[in-house]
Every structure is written in structure tokens, then in C-alpha cells.
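Bump. Still looking for riboflavin kinase C-alpha cells.
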Amino acid sequence: MTIHYNEMLMMLWNLPQTVAVFAEFDKWDENETNLIKKAKENNLKVILIQKEISNFKNIIPNKGIEQKAKDLDCELVLWHSFNQEYNYERIKQDLNIQKVYLFDNNSDLAKIETAFEDKTIIKYDEKLNNDIKKSEEFLKLGKIQEYKNLNGFNFGFKGFVEHGNHIGRTINYPTANIIINDELILKEAVYLTTTKLPNDEKAYPSISAYWTNKNGVNVFESHILDFDQDIYGWGIDVEIIDFIRESIKVNNLDELKDLLNQDKAYAIKHFKGE
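Sorry for the wait, here they are.
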């Protein structure tokens, strides 16, 4: 289970006594695993607290963090803050935190030391982060299968659908556009993807292009197959399944449509299991 925490909600959480691990789990490597194992020696419920700032920057997506937390029998807390001011005294009280574990390079080390009397601070070992470096490199090269083989899950992210230039709609390829602002750690290319909508567990097959448009805007555009709904403003969940091809500059809309037809045919074949 994942807890979405915000001190502004004034909720009563009713958690048993907990031990909290504060770390950058979006860059989870051997260091984080070892820190959690130390925390579990207390024989209390262990919660992993991840600041939810911009999931575009994650190397390990939230779904991957959830999977890793579950594998270690821990609960994930995504800490949302509207003003980026994190109240450690408040989260200590709300989540019944008795002790904390963290690394010596934590950006909020001083605040955490002040808020918690019982704390264990471990030196972050740069020699133990080879897997996260590999994961980042795979994403930058568009090596999606290599990323999945290393981590055991697909890369993905969430974003809100915004209006674009509506060019795709003119050739029967409407897209759900997410403005990235150069934050996504991923090669600009065309990908096989799935897209999930709010309150809908179905993973809709889609083809997606990550590129910089003519206005210099970094955008991730997804065409959901056999789908015709207005989802502007909706939050969607994109999962990268595989690399299809490099980005190709086209001279006109006919060339673009030909390319998209090929991408769609590839996607249909894949999702049919052929």
C-alpha cells in the first residue's frame, strides 16, 4: 500500500509505531536496500518516505519504488508539499515515527536531526550505486529492455494532458500531450507504451513520441489506440514498454502519417502477442 501524505489534509492516520527511512528512492540502489535492512532490525513497521517533487526526474518510477518497497515488506509514503516546505515535526507526529534512518548526504539532514531525537545516519557509499548509473544510461540511450532486465519493471511517469498544436488530429492521430520541460531522463525517440487514465485500471495500448517541437518545447505525445475521448487536463500514467525507432524529421504530413501507420502496425502486432 502507498500512502499519499500531505500535512495540509489534517487526516488521522492511526499508524502503529513506525521507523522511517528518508532517502531518494527514485534513485534506489544498494545503499537504500542496506539502509532499509538496518531499519528493519528494530522490529517495528518500516515506512519509506519519498518526497514527491517531479516524477519526470525519477530514474526509478513510483511504481518501481512501490514494488521494491513491497518486496522488502515496507510501506511507501509519497510526501506531497504544495510549497516545498517539509514539516518534519508534523510528519513525525502524524505517522507515529519513533526513529529515523537516513544518509549523511540528505539535503534536509539538519532539519531531520532537529526534529528526531532517535536517528541513525549512515554514510552514503558511492561504490554501491552502479545499478542506478546503468539504469540512467539505459534510459538516455533508449535501451528499454535492458532497463527492464536490470530492474524487473518498466520505466514510466505521470503527467497532465495539455493542449498542443493539434497536428495529429488532422491526420487521425490525436495525441495526449505532456509538457516535460527537459526533466525526463529518456532518449528522444518513438516508443511502444501503455496509458492509464484516472480511476481506470485498464492499460490502453499506445504509441508515443518524446521530442522537442518547433516551438522548442520538450513534449511527450501519446496516441492511444482505438480511443476517442477528450482527456485534456487529466492526469495520465504512461509506461514505456519498448523502443520503436529513432525520431525522424519529415517534410510533410503525408510522410508523418506513413511513419505513424508503421508505428501503429508494429504496436498492434505487439499487443496481439504476434
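The longest strand covers residues 235-246.

Edit: fixed formatting.
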